[in-house]
């Protein structure tokens, strides 16, 4: 791919960009721009060096305290072992009813859904960057199996797979783990993104995300990593510094359709990106989440699943709450250049893994 | 008002509620419910005891380093003095142009807008809870004057007034201050709330917020404070613990229409709520923001301005990012009861101030 100047022709002073996928304007406050190094270290809580913590419920030896194991597998040795259990303190439970109940002018329902924890390793400190790509692939495999299982349950309308790393990102336990939540409603936030993609399709006759991918490959200034099946880039209107989208090259609306080859390549992309963040940004707290279509939209031509990574480097404050707009002190092109350590990939070299 | 049992009849297990104003579902995770005391102390950075900090740019004596003063007034003594200046590191600047520029499939524009700082007191540690209600009224007065000034500028389509308190809430300086930002676009987030209110009006023929106020007064289990002009309550589907809405009793779409009497009463309500939060929740970081109509909607029958306070007690994590839903571990009725210290107000006593 072509590597142009890191920043597009400057505008007068500050700049605003519109993200057509989310419908959100983002303010790039260049007068308060921070150098990447000044963003670094926004994390909370010490990282552990210990492979075993006797107080950790996810470390081996506490099996009797865990809820029943829903899925467990590995590659023969305990270093490559995955466990999925029901969350001991679930936000949603499968016993709930979807019936809506009026309460004055308001409405409520029971908290129906599934809330699972995926314990990624028996080792307390074996976070993704120090795993082998094969171990990361086991995690993706577990995501896929649980996704198919949960979306197959009639009452589930959405399955959200996510990982919170560090206290600022909402994690209370440091043991390597992800979470999976299914819901019996489609949240307004998800519907809005669907509507925007539908409107784009109605206007242009193509998938907005496929077009975005083509645009990014052509511009070549926000891409950090690419392999056979995935392209990792900072979106044009990233809402926060070093936000990364890992986009499958193949158009598929829902994560359940991921192929075996794609699982291998997603593991490789995710591993590369989390390593890059850890090394370059001093191991910040982060969240990642897999955006996939709501049920019944899984075959539609405008929907396209992807994985979004958000390092916790800044704070959502009053203006964001009131307007829904973000103030980002860092331009996507500069963030991409900062995270791009390798020799620049050549145009057309996108089919080979960069790592 | 009637004070019913603190919690409505329980549902089976967890509960979900729908907020018709935001279109967001909220999950009440009662199995992971925390007692208010466990939420306390979620703040970052020590509070200062000093009335003067020689390194603080907002303390007296640094006037020559401040941008030109846009508004300055008080009541004769320096303890009651307000200053509004242009933000030295503005996110948006009035020199910008509103012209949209295409960049491949994307779009951007210059960062047009105004970004002002309202220095609330010459004293470095004179936060709102230790002010007199009269001093707080001076702040509201300054909000009002700047709001009218900014919304009167032709290119401004929205004015957002907000206050970030503490580092977790995004404040970098502790000196008492608020911020005002005007934008030349109406963000999607604001339009969505307008559409929801419009849909409600089209269906029921009344303002959703007026109906909400009537509902809250009738239920009487989520109200914390009421006076002549304002009712302060935890919304039925509050997205986070101890979220407070201060709602004007009189239907007006935009903050610019606030009356003199309402300014006095808003100062009293805001003062009471911030004091209550400080005392009961151990002085947490918080944001508040005034939600007011976008330009050209200022006379419409479905829009209703209000002030929203959000203490920073929890963390937005992967599930919230992916789904737009919130997980709240605390029921609004219980939060309201925890913040309600006074003898319970009688039904019909709503016209008298509780403080």
TrEMBL record, chains A, B:
Residues annotated as domain Galactose-1-phosphate uridyl transferase C-terminal: 198-306
GO annotation (BP), single: galactose metabolic process
Entry keywords, A to Z: Carbohydrate metabolism, Metal-binding, Nucleotidyltransferase, Transferase, Zinc
Keyword Secreted listed: no
Spans through the membrane: none
Molecular function terms, GO-annotated: UDP-glucose:hexose-1-phosphate uridylyltransferase activity; zinc ion binding
Keyword Cell wall biogenesis/degradation set for record: no
Pfam families membership: GalP_UDP_tr_C, GalP_UDP_transf
Cofactor(s) required for function per UniProt: Zn(2+)
Region of interest called Disordered, as start-end residue ranges on this chain: 335-355
Galactose-1-phosphate uridyl transferase N-terminal domain segment(s): 14-187
Similarity section: Belongs to the galactose-1-phosphate uridylyltransferase type 1 family.
Protein name, per record: Galactose-1-phosphate uridylyltransferase
Species for this entry: anaerobic digester metagenome
